[in-house]
Amino acid sequence: MRNILIIGAGRSSSSLIKYLLDKSSLENLHITIGDVSLESAQSKINNHKNATAIQLDVFNAEERANAIQKADIVISMLPASFHIEVAKDCITYGKHMVTASYISNEMKALDEEAKAKGLVFMNEIGLDPGIDHMSAMQIIDRIKEQGGKMLLFESFCGGLVAPESDTNLWNYKFTWNPRNVVLAGQGGASMFIQEGTYKYIPYHKLFRRTEFLTVNGSGRFEAYANRDSLKYRSIYGLEDIKTMYRGTIRKVGFSRAWNVFVQLGMTDDTYTIEDSENMSYRDFTNLFLAYSPSDSVELKFRSYLKIDQDDLMWDKFVELDIFNPNKKVGLKNATPAQILQKILMDSWTLEKEDKDMIVMHHIFGYEYKEDKYQIESSMVIKGDDQTYTAMAKTVGLPVAMATVRILNGEITTPGVQLPIRKEVYEPILKELEDYGINFVEKEVPYLGYNPESIKG
């Protein structure tokens, strides 16, 4: 049997593992799942005859090398920064590798060695990055093949809570790594190009420069800019495009309220707070406000941020219980971002019956025979339950489908890559439709740059 090693059995691996187990007899597969928690790995395979669970510490070089040597292909579902040691072992032992993460500089540096050994190192084959690349390239390639010239490409994606599970004023719950949500947008200015003009948004302005979207029967959303949209011009073969913008989707009103945390400094992860363990939520909030012998924390908060008492935004912060003097932070030497994450997890963790939702929306503007056209392509996916979430399906299924195709010799181009070639995206997008993951495409009047949507 052909052995697939999956390293990491976290929440996002459930649909990936189920797909491979379901295909294991037909495709002659044995799936080995390695995780630092043997119990977690065992829970994912449920005693399946074609699967083995092993305890695997990715930082133990001997354990890691032993597991990789026995595999025909390796899937890393670890945090992005941990992939590189796995990748180096895959080079050493001549194994193909698949991840859902962005290609790091360290991973890119392995390209020549991977090509020399004929190894496929497929990255960015999850949701975002992943399905976004494939669905975008399918339409971009089609427009080009028909003789069209691309003028505009905007792409948006967000992990949200399904409407039936939307029970808080923020219209948001954590469907992915909470830490990534708290730190979103940090690390440099967000950059994009709009009608030939370069735009740079610093972090402290990011959440007040939003674009608004209406997505195919699913309502109105807002989006804030991703960090670097400009690099996708060369990746997608759109070097001369006038508008290139990628953003993260939230329900309308989220960004305005989130901006309060940014302005106060609560999302800062660069220093630790003294005696954070014994601090109350109210103490934490008060840290960022001026001293007053008479004014309450609530009054100082509203006054500093110019929030009226009857503003819905005020109710959002009250709902999070950030003024509670009795709730303790309980984290030693914590950064503001870590404490904020702890507070938000009280309110934004999905309940057992909750369902998540993924929304992806692309806008393509192009010119053909001197006329201008615009296409909108949208995907809205709901999770089944807390195991097979929309996030787990849309991240895990493309990873699994690419893995089987590499094993079967259907994806053969070697090297460190992302899924922008037809040999990759066409069959995977087609198969994803069998799992209810599909796009609704429609032609709309060409709008070009909408000055109402991005200020300045």
From TrEMBL:
Residues 126-437 form the Saccharopine dehydrogenase-like C-terminal domain. One of its GO terms (molecular function) is saccharopine dehydrogenase activity. Coiled coil: none annotated. It comes from the Bacteria. Residues 4-122 form the Saccharopine dehydrogenase NADP binding domain. Gene3D superfamilies: Dihydrodipicolinate Reductase, domain 2, Domain 3, Saccharopine reductase, NAD(P)-binding Rossmann-like Domain. Pfam families: Sacchrp_dh_C, Sacchrp_dh_NADP. Keywords: Oxidoreductase. InterPro entries: AASS, NAD(P)-bd_dom_sf, Sacchrp_dh-like_C, Sacchrp_dh_NADP-bd. One of its GO terms (biological process) is lysine biosynthetic process via aminoadipic acid. Transmembrane segments: none annotated. SUPFAM superfamilies: Glyceraldehyde-3-phosphate dehydrogenase-like, C-terminal domain, NAD(P)-binding Rossmann-fold domains. GO terms for cellular component: cytoplasm. This is Saccharopine dehydrogenase-like NADP-dependent oxidoreductase.
